[in-house]
Amino acid sequence: MILFVLPAMAGLLDTLTPEERQVVLCQQVATPAEVVHDYARAAGVWGACLAESRRTGQDAVSALLADQLGIIQARASAAAWRTADPNRYAIAVLTVAADQRSTYYPGTDIADVFRAWMQTEAGKARLEPARTITLVWEGVAPEDEAEARTVAELFRRHVSDLGLKWADPGHPDVDVIVYATLSIAALDPATSGPAGALSRAEARFEATRVRFRTLDDTTDGFRVGSIAEEAEAGLAREAATRAVCERAAARLLKQVLRAVLK
Predict the structure, then answer these.
(1) Concatenated DSSP letters of the chain
(2) Neighbours of 256 (CB within 10 A)
């Protein structure tokens, strides 16, 4: 299977691991079928990608591809409910996602299904005890407070984009508290552009624990990271920060799904 990289994907690919990058390339081939809801044909694409990765012994890639194939197969199996019974459709697909080990999904499959679920009365009711999110920083040095506020705002935007609600720390009506630390560091330049070596930065967002206050439950946290390359150090730092916030929100969605669908 020959895979082509769209120009608009170049920046995204730079922030992904090699395994995730391979999954995104397969996504490009599957997208035409997925956008017209032909999930049976899309499953054929993902199945071919998975077979090739297994043939070449790419175990890490195979695990990601197998999970993505599972999502598409769930959508294919539940296709009759997509418009007839959106709640049933969403539960069928999101339960599969919640049970998988992967925390990264290409495209907007999971987020789109989740947002559609939130438009149903049944979905709103199911999520009610885990819908309002807040972020509490742990171990952030005073000199980093301004950047911590910026990152919290970026994280808030991505959380809100998913259809979850946001509350500032200390608000009495909070369902989920994410306790987290943040680190952003410059890395040695690795490649060269027209103007010379590109600046690199790495951002790491670690949730030490996630407390589901309304459900009276506390789960283990998670770690996500991102590396970005840009012409200037400040731009690289900003790009890595934006990417890590998006990943953290997606990872939090996984925890929320596990909490409400278990």
Answers:
(1) ------GGGHHHHHTS-HHHHHHHHHHHHHHHHHHTT-HHHHHHHHHHHHHHHHHTT-HHHHHHHHHHHHHHHHHHHTGGGTTT-HHHHHHHHHHHHHHSS----STTHHHHHHHHHTTSHHHHHHHGGG-EEEEEE-S--GGGHHHHHHHHHHHHHHHHHTT-EE--TT-SS-SEEEEEEEEEEEE----EETTEEPEEEEEEEEEEEEEETTTTEEEEEEEEEEEEEESSHHHHHHHHHHHHHHHHHHHHHHHHHHHHH-
(2) 23
Measured in whole angstroms, the distance separating CA 253 from the mean position of its chain's CA atoms is: 8
Tell me the backbone φ, ψ of residue 140, rounded to 5 degrees.
-90, 120
Tokens linked to 118: 């939130």
pLDDT tens readout for residues 153-192: 999 999 999 999 999 988 889 999 999 998 899 998 866 5
Q: What is the pLDDT of residues 196-229, one digit of tens each?
A: 678 899 999 999 999 999 999 999 889 999 888 8
Burial class of residue 145, CB neighbours in 10 A (0-12, 13-18, 19+): exposed
* Pairwise CA distance, residues 73 & 84, whole Å: 18
pTM of the model: 0.84
Report d(CA 96, CA 261) in Å as an integer. 10
Q: How far is Cα 163 from Cα 239, in angstroms, rounded to an integer?
A: 23
Between CA 1 and CA 198 the distance in angstroms is: 32
Instruction: Please check whether residue 196 is in contact with residue 126, taking contact to mean a CB–CB distance below 8 angstroms.
Output: no
Q: In the predicted model, is pLDDT for residue 13 greater than 50?
A: no
Longest dimension (CA), the chain: 56
Q: Which residues pair with 116 in a beta bridge?
A: none
